[in-house]
Design a protein that fits this description.
By secondary structure, this protein is mainly alpha-helical. The chain has helices at about 10-15, 25-30, 45-50, 60, 65-75, 80-90, 115-130, 130-140, 150-165, 185-190, 200-209; strands spanning about 90-95, 95-100, 110, 110-115. It is built from eleven helices and four strands; from the N terminus they run ααααααββββααααα. The mean pLDDT is about 90.
């Protein structure tokens, strides 16, 4: 059978081995959220989360961060109903102008989908906690993800090579939007087979399948 047509249940990806349980600590992340960021369709803002991250003497208020962490744990481990993940995939679409157009011309716009800030915060913390694992997999073939100052490393590396080998030429081809060619099923199966990234499968599976 073609791999892209295989049934993609979480149990199929687990292969009888199960997955390491995902957990995130959100207190410090909530405190450092940036103000005046874009919101999803509900209008829920980072500012609300920042206010909830303070240290409270009130018993109910003090439970907020632990409860949010409990929710995040269930969310990342694919334990919530399918309809909830579908609802959280809804985004607010906007089209920032990349380059100002002359009068009478259509500006170059790139649509951006803004999801809910709570989900963005949870996923951002998960990715931050997983940088070392991702770096072990991607380095040195990809410095654009999980590598600190990756763009600078690439730029200095190219400059050093051309200085060492003056006869070399560097040509950049931007022929196709590779991001839109990714097959999510195949990506998830590859992650499940990788010892460094396997623990992330439930979170990716629940949000992208």
């Amino acid at each position: 059978r073609d791999e892209d047509e295989l049934p993609l249940r979480l149990s199929d990806l687990a292969g009888g081995q199960g997955f390491e349980r995902l957990e995130v600590k959100l207190g410090e992340t909530m405190r450092t959220l940036r103000r005046l960021r874009g919101t999803g369709v509900t209008g829920f803002r980072n500012e609300y989360l920042k206010a909830l991250s303070e240290k409270f003497t009130d018993e109910r208020a003090a439970r907020v961060v632990p409860l949010l962490q409990e929710f995040a744990e269930r969310y990342l481990n694919a334990e919530l109903p399918p309809w909830f993940y579908q609802a959280m995939a809804t985004v607010e679409i906007c089209a920032p102008i990349k380059k100002k157009a002359d009068v009478g011309e259509v500006p170059d716009c790139r649509p951006v989908g803004m999801g809910e800030v709570v989900i963005r915060m949870i996923n951002s913390k998960l990715m931050s906690d997983s940088k070392e694992a991702a770096h072990d997999v991607l380095w040195p073939h990809n410095v654009g993800s999980a590598t600190r100052d990756g763009c600078a490393i690439l730029a200095h590396g190219i400059r050093a090579i051309t200085e060492m080998r003056p006869g070399f030429a560097v040509v950049k081809f931007d022929v196709k939007n590779a991001h839109n060619t990714i097959r999510r099923k195949i990506a998830l199966m590859r992650m499940a087979r990788n010892e460094h990234l396997r623990h992330l499968v439930p979170a990716f599976w629940s949000q992208y399948v």
